[in-house]
Structures are given as structure tokens and as C-alpha cells.
Amino acid sequence: MPGKTSSFGARVLVICASSFLFCVANLPAQMSSAAAPAAPALHEVVDGYGRTVRIPVNPNRIISLAPSVTETLYALGVEGRLVGDTDYCDYPPDAQKKPKVGGVINPNLEQIAALHPDLVVMSKEGNLLETVRALDSLGIPTYATDARSIEQIISSTQKLADVLNVSKVGKALTADLQQRLSTLQSKLAGVPPRRVLFIVWPEPLMSVGKSTFIADAIRKAGALSIVDSNQDWPQVSLEEVVRLQPDFLVFAASHSGSAERDFELLANRPGWQILDAVRNRRFAVASEAIIRPAPRLVSVIEDLARQLHPDVFLEKPGPDEPAAPANVSPVSQPKPLASLVSQSSCSAETSCVL
Amino acid sequence: MSTPHRTPTPSPSNPTPDQQRANSDVRLSVEQASYVYAPNPSQAPLFTLEALSFQAKPGEIVAILGPNASGKSTLLKLISGALQPLSGRIFLNGFATHDLPPQIRAQRIAFVQQESRLLFPSRVWEFVLQGRHAHGHGLRFVTEEDMAVANNALTQVGASHLADRWMDKISGGEKQRVILARALAQQPLLLLLDEPTLHLDIGAQVDLLESLRRLAAENRYTVIIVTHELNLTGEYADQVVLLQKGKCLRVGTPASVFQRDLLEHVFQAPLTVEMTSSGRPRVTLFNKQ
Amino acid sequence: MRPLTLGRLFLRCGILAVVLFVVVVMALKLGAVQVSLYGLGRDLIRVLLHQSSGISTDYGMIVVDIRLPRILLAIVVGASLSVAGTSFQALLRNPLADPYVLGISSGGAVGAIIALMLENQLSFSPEFAGLITPFGAFLGAAITIAAVYFLGRREGQIDSTTLLLGGVITASFLNAIIMFLMSSLAGSNLRGGATYWMMGSLSTLPSKSLLYLLGIGFLVAAGAIYTTSSDLNLLLAGEKEAMHLGVDVRRVQILVYLAASILTGLAVSVSGAIGYVGLLVPHAMRMIFGSDHRMLLPAAALGGAIALVIADTIARTVVAPSELQVGAVTALVGAPFFIYLLRRRLA
Questions:
Q1: Of B136, B76, B80, nearest to B109 (Cα)?
Q2: C65, C133, C203, C213: best mutation site toward chain A, by most A Cβ within 10 Å?
Q3: Is the Cα dihedral B67, B71, B77, B80 positive or negative?
Q4: Rounded CA gap, A99 and A114, in Å?
């Protein structure tokens, strides 16, 4: 009976198709349960992606998806409204106590949703577009900062302050940051920039590209990165570095704490003795804050400038530096060229020089 | 004469009763069929099968006989429709075998393999049911008729007791019978076998030929066997097609084909031919001195 | 003698469907955030009876907007990969065949990486951003499918050995291209994204239209393959033998090749190359139900769905709140299972 079985296939297909479509059709478009019980007032802003986003006027359940964003939020004094951040948000130490929602590139959507945020703040550089799209489809408002240069870090901080309704605090903070930078500029005016190699990773040897904010920070500190690349994290060969013979090596402090040890490890790698900077022990250590596009970066720039141009900052002989702006803790003593080591001293609040 | 075993399959290409009656005596007709195997067109052909003709009737066993590389397998492939003859034609009940669509062809022609390597083990009854595929349409499940035909096929080859066994666990001779059963399950008009006795011991060889003779007589199959076994051919074949190096040297009954000088020429070995009481020739080979 | 009948087929598929349903319910419950089964069940029933418009806001978004789409994605991808794997094993007559053996996933990866690079150069708005990479991946897979088809022909017809060789060579060539692309991406932010994609994951939140597309694609392609089930049974014995038994070998090969490749391409476009599912689920189902493709294909589809939903649930709960890559879970579970299968075969 051939006819009977040839329609069998059609029947199976129909049953499968209808059950699947039934399932998917019953997916409500959005649950929108993240919104506060009363419909909040919304306004439109343009974020770092150039999107026009509609976000609450006064968000008070904020989630940060990048460590730099978390730092900025604390710097703006809105940490009371921060209800969650990523596993990597460790500065200031209080940030570690906030509920965690996962990593930067793979945050856990469920945990974000469970916290019922009314705004998620992200960074264009650190977070994935995919995450933005996912949060959009869940109906959770997002705002992304864009910070590729020092100027942009400062301006996006101000923008973020406006979005969060703390414009005055933001203005104070940015004004202070600008002021410190211009003071630094004037001190370094006329001083030839040091040629440096910023080491992101020793093996394979990776440095920073010229359009990153790190390169910008280096420039503001009176130095020039010898690596001229359009990539963000270019790999460079040791030969090329030897050819260019930088004046200084700059690297970020590791968690072991001792910059001397870090330098020794570097210097003992095969081939590195060829570099003048290694033989003469000319290196500078920046705090790990250098890789975060946040207000702390300005302090790092200042410290880096001091290490690279000690003579500029030795205005009068004496053990202590002249008093810095009020919210900066005392810095380390300038030391002879032979061994430049920074000590860490952190205050509980905002700026910190390591 | 027993009634035909199979019921006519309801397929559109079934010849009309008139056509069938018109060819009632001749089932297979090979007319001046030839073939050339030339994989590289710019070079000389590797093998040529020159035009030959013969006919076969229902119930007949035809042996295609010859030494190695005489073109026997090529001729069998032409008959099975797997190859298209370069010239001439091959008709099965009036239809050119190569032009038939694969499914219709499988309803009429069954090729009995020597071996069957299965990727995943299956049971004997599953294997035999494969022969019913030709009689189904697209996606279909096993019908009562299929089961009956398969069971019958197994009985006919004397392998019913093997039905639930695994294919990879039965002996070579048993496997050969099961493969034959699968071919019978196709309910064909034509049964083709390529050197079926190659791996069998003498007892099994005789068993096989006896079965084929019985099946051909009972069910009116036309059986075509490719072989180089002289005595089996002499004993069981109704017709012999003698090939050597791509040429057909003679077609006829064993008695007429088994002439001493002819056979010695073809097989390049000294021999004598005797006639038995049943009218069948028997060949005895000598040592080359 | 107990041949497969329609009734038996439905019964077995029904059992598998029930298992799938139970697995789905568990998957809805488990996750980084606690959801109570009782509350969920109660709300679901209310929704079905149209007594309430939605599920409790406490976990409604989590279950319906985040977990359910992901589970549906796992179902479609798992079913697609298993059916494709079963088909390739039959087509190539090789028990080691999996959906990626002919280079489709490598082609998809090349397409995805190029799409990522393009996406970076020209900035798209986030709505499109989600579609560029899958589209690029599918395009890469499609081109590979066509190329391997032409490589795999012999005398104008697909030959299983030639196809396998052509596919393997294409795969290694494409893998070399991938390595080249990855090294040229080495200095940029995209590298993390590319690696993440290639490892295979279900964590991208699928949109409704994407799920529809995948579901319909699956039903059409798998349905087409299913119509050739009895042909596939015979094809396992060899192309010549199958032809003599009445199979239109050429037509079946082309249809199965195209349909199985499309299934793989769709799965790979959205989830990267999740391994072991397409290789092992067919074998497991064969061990339970035998190698008759009329039973095996639906069983593989359901079994693949079950396997991938379980693997994905493990991936997102074991180290919560972080996630493992689902490809890592399938490998961790799959490799020992594969060894077990090998030993069984030898015994």
C-alpha cells in the first residue's frame, strides 16, 4: 500500500513544525520586568557607539560591565547606586564587595537580569557589541562610554556624570584632572620626550599601538612610544627594539609587588642585554591602572612623568615633593637613576598613586 | 508447469500482456552488443568487447564461459544495465536494460554479489528485506507482502533457520545463500551471478548450482552465470556463451560448445571431452608435458 | 523477525520526546539564578490557560527571555548536527564521519572571521551586528560545500572516497587560512572574539526570527534526508550494490550531501563548531535502535537535542556565574564515551 506511507512523512513534518512554532510563538516579545514598577521618566542620549538610547533620567540601579567604568562611577561618587559589577572590578577595594555578574566579554545575562537594573554602563573598548545587542533585546537600557584618548576619557567621564545626574561632581572631577594635566604639560614644555618601549607582554613581545589611550598617556608623560603601529596590541620583534634602542623600558606593575624583581626577570631573558636600557637599568614602572581608561590614569601619568624626567621635578633639593592637589596622597621620593622603584600607597577613596 | 511465483508489480513500465506474449519465448535478447573501455580518450582503449548476440528463455541457465580477462564481467554488466553498450542493444522483455530507471530495473534484474560488506552489522532478515526496496515508493515501511516474500525467499534457499542470526556471525556458505535469498526477494525476471563459486568448497558449489537449477525451473527465472568452471558449466548450463579476449567464439548448448580443439585453444591447456549418459559433456584436464 | 513499523517508530520517538521535555524543564529551572520549579510550573499553566499575561517578574525574564531561547537554540543545533552526522556517516560509508569532516565548519570559521574583520572596519548598528557574523559564517560554509562537491566527483558522480578525501584536504587548507587570519588579527581586539566564536558556544542570545529560520531550515533539510532513509540503508552496503537493489544512487547522494551540508552550515553559523555531538549521538542511537535510518534519523534528531541541552545546562551551571564553553563540555564527555564505543566494537 504505497499511498499510505508517502503521506506519513508529510504528517510527521506537520506535527514537528507546529509544535516548534507553537513553542516559539509563545515566547513573549519582551517581559520588560527589569523596569521599575512605576514607568520611569526617560530621556534620550547619544552614547559612545553613536546610538541614541533612551535611558531613565535618574537611574539608581546601575550595573557596570567594565572595571574602568566601575572606577569612574566611584570617582563620581555614585557607588551607592551601583548594584553589580564584573569579576574584574577590583578598584577601589569596595568594588570587590558588589554583586558580581561575570566577566567583561562574557557577562552572565541571567545575573544581570536578576538584579533588575535600570541602566547598564559598558565601555566600547572592553565589551562586545554582542552583549549590547543581547541587553537591547531584553529591554534593558544600556549606555556605552568611548575612551580612546586621554581627552576622551575626561570628556566621557563628564558625559557619564551628566547621564547619571551628577554633573557638578563631574565638572569638579574633570576640572581637576585637566588642571593636573596642564600643570604637567607646562613642566614638561621644552623637555625632549624620552623614547620608551611599553611592554604589555614580554614573550611574545607585545606593545601598544599609537591610537590606544596608553600611547596617549605615554605622550602626556613626556615620552614617545617607539612602536608606531595601527594595531592595538602589536607584536614587535626584539630585533626591531634593538635597532630603535629606546631610552627607557616601561611596564605595568605585576601583582608580585616588587618592581626590581619584575625588571630582573625581564633583563635575564635571552637577548635583552643588548638593549642599552637594560644594561643601564633604565626602566619605569607604572601601576596596573595604566591599562584602565579611568580618572586614575592621570595619576599614573604624573607618576610616570616623574620617573622618566626626575630632573624636571627636582625643583628644590629635599626629601619630599611639593604638596600636590588635595586628594592626592604623598608620592615616593625621587631616587637616583640607578634604581627607580615606586612604592605603593593607596588611600581608600579616589586617586591613588602607585 | 508450476504457476509463476510472482504477482505482476503495479509499475507503469510493465509490458502489456500482448508484448509479453509476443516475446513469450525469448526473455533476454542481446543484439550485437559491444563495449569499449577507454578511460583516457587520447590513448588506445584498454579493453574491447566485440559485438555479440545471444538469447535466453525463461527457466534457462546461461553460462558465460571463458578464461580471465575475456570480457565476461563486462558482458554481465552490460546485461545488468550498469553499462551502456557502445553499439547494439540488450533487451529484457522488450525493454533496453540501460534505459530503465534504477528502481524498475531492480524489479526485473537481480545481481547476486559474491560478498556483502556491511558497515554496521544487521540481521539476516533485515538483509533479505533489502531486496524489497525496489518494490516500494519513497518513504515506506515493511508490509505484510514484503515479509511474506522475504520469508519465502529464505525458505527457497534453505536458510529459514538463519533468519534471526547476525550477518557477520554466519559461515561463508550460509552467507552466500542469504545473499541469493535477497536477490530472490526482488522477484526478478533475471538473476545474474558473477563467479559465484569462487570462494565455495566443492560441496557448496554443487549445492548452489542445484538450487539455481531448481529455482529457475520452478519460478521461471532466467539465470546468467559468469564462470570459468568447465565441469560445472557442462553439467548445469542450458546454454554456453564462450568468450576469449573480448570475442565471442561460440554460443550453444554445452554439448555443441565443448569441442576439444576449441576448448584447448581458448583455455590453452590440453584436455579431453567425454559425453556422459545424460548427454552432458565432461572435461578432463591433463598435465602439460 | 520484528521489522520497524510506523507504530513502533512513533512509540520510540514519543519516549524520546518525553525525555526531551523533562530535560527542557530541568534546563529551565537550572542556571546561575535560582528559579523555583513549582512557581515556574504554576505560572506556565496560568499562561497556557490565558489566566495571566506573563510569568512572575522575579524570574520571568530569566526563564522566558534568556533561558528558553537558548534551550530552543540548543535543540535545533543539536538536532541539526546529529542528523547531519548520521547522514554523512551513511553517505561516506565511514563511522568516523562527523558534520565537519568535509570542511564545512572550517569554511564557516573563515567566513565568520572575515565578517568580524569587516564589521570592525565598517561600523554597524547593534541590530545588524548580530547578523553579520552568522551570515558571513553561512556564506563561508556554502562556498565550501560547493567546492567540496566539485572536488568530490569522479566521472561526473559523487564517489564517497573521493568526496571524503576532497573534504579533508579542503578542511586542512581552510584551517591554514584560519591560522593566517588569526595571526594577522593578533594585534587587535578581534582576536578574542574570533577564538570565542570558533570554540563553539550557545551563549549568543538568538532572536525570534533567527530561531524561526533555523527551525524551518532544519525541518526542510532533515525532512528531505528522511525521505531517503531506505535508500541510505542500502547505500551502506556500497554504491554498486545499492544501485543493483534499485537505489537511484546519484540522486540520493546529491540530495543527502546538500541537505546535510545545509544543516551543518546553519548550525555552525550560529554556534561555531560544537564538536562530538554529530559524531557520537548517531552511534549511541544506533546502539539502542539499530541502523535502520527510518528509526535512526528521528532518534538522532531527538537524541542530539537532548544531548546538547544537557551539555549546555552543564556548561552554564557547573562554574556559575561563569560559563564553560559548551564545546568543552561535549569534548569532556564525548571523548570518554567515544573510547567506550571503540572498545565495545572491538569486543
A1: B80
A2: C65
A3: negative
A4: 11
Chain A residues with CB under 8 Å of a chain B CB are 1-2, 5-6, 8-9
C-alpha distances in Å from residue C269, one per residue of A42, A134, A305, C107, C264:
37, 17, 49, 10, 8
Q: What is the pLDDT of residues A138-160, one digit of tens each?
A: 889 999 998 888 999 999 999 99
Range from B101-110, C90-99, C197-206, C303-312 carrying the lowest mean pLDDT: C197-206
Judge: B102–C249 Cβ closer than 8 Å, yes or no.
yes
pLDDT value, residue C173: 95
Cβ distance B136 to A2 less than 8 Å, yes or no, reads yes
> Which one-letter DSSP state was computed for residue B152?
H
C244 vs B106, B138, B151: nearest CB = B106
**End-to-end Cα, chain C, rounded Å:** 25
pLDDT for B115 beyond 90:
no
Q: Tell me how close the Cα of C315 comes to any Cα of chain A, in angstroms.
A: 12
Nearest Cα to Cα of residue B93 among B141, B21, B143:
B21
Q: Hey, is the C-beta of C8 within 8 angstroms of any chain B C-beta?
A: no
Neighbours of chain A (3+ CB pairs under 8 A): B, C
Task: Say if residues B275 and B79 touch (Cβ distance below 8 Å).
Answer: no
Residue C127 half-sphere exposure, CB side, CA atoms within 13 Å? 2
CA distance A108 to B287: 88
The overall average pLDDT reported for chain A is 79
B18 or C67, which is more confident? C67
Q: A192: which DSSP letter?
A: P
Region at B268 (left for phi over 0; alpha for psi -120 to 50; beta for the rest): left
* Cα atoms found within 13 Å of the Cα of residue B72, Cβ hemisphere only: 24
CB pair distance less than 8 Å for B82 and C286: no
Q: What residues of chain C lie within 8 A of the CB of B146, using their CB?
A: 3
CB-nearest partner of A134 from C60, C205, C211: C205
Which stretches of chain B are assigned E, i.e. beta strand?
28-37, 47-56, 61-65, 87-92, 95-96, 109-112, 190-194, 222-227, 239-244, 247-252, 271-275, 281-285
Contact indicator for C44, C55 with CB cutoff of 8 Å? yes
Residue A106 Cα, gap to closest chain C Cα (Å) = 8
C-alpha cell at B119: 558497515
| Binary contact (A1, B136; C-beta < 8 A) | no
- Which of C203, C211, C223 is closest, CB to CB, to A106? C203
- The answer to whether A187 and A156 have CB atoms below 8 angstroms apart is no
What is the dihedral sign for C-alpha A59, A61, A66, A70? positive
Interface size, chain A vs chain B, as Cβ–Cβ contacts under 8 Å = 17
Residue A77 pLDDT exceeds 70? yes
Mean pLDDT in residue range B75-98: 92
Q: Please tell me the predicted confidence (pLDDT) of residue C22.
A: 92
3-state DSSP assignment of residue B238: coil
d(CA C79, CA C217): 12
Summarize the confidence of residues B161-177 as an average pLDDT.
Answer: 89
- Asked if residue A117 has pLDDT above 60, the reply is yes
CA atoms within 13 Å, Cβ hemisphere of C317: 16
CB C292 to CB B126 under 8 A? yes
pLDDT > 50? residue A318: no
Q: How many degrees, rounded to 5, is the angle at CA A287 between CA A284 and CA A288?
A: 125
Q: Which of B37, B110, B76, B117 is nearest to C155 (CA)?
A: B37
SS3 state at C11: helix
- A20 vs B164 pLDDT, higher one: B164
pLDDT band at B148 (very low <50, low <70, confident <90, very high): very high
C216 CA to chain A: closest CA distance, Å? 8
Residue type, C178: I
Q: What is the pLDDT of residues B189-221, one digit of tens each?
A: 999 999 988 878 888 889 899 999 999 999 999
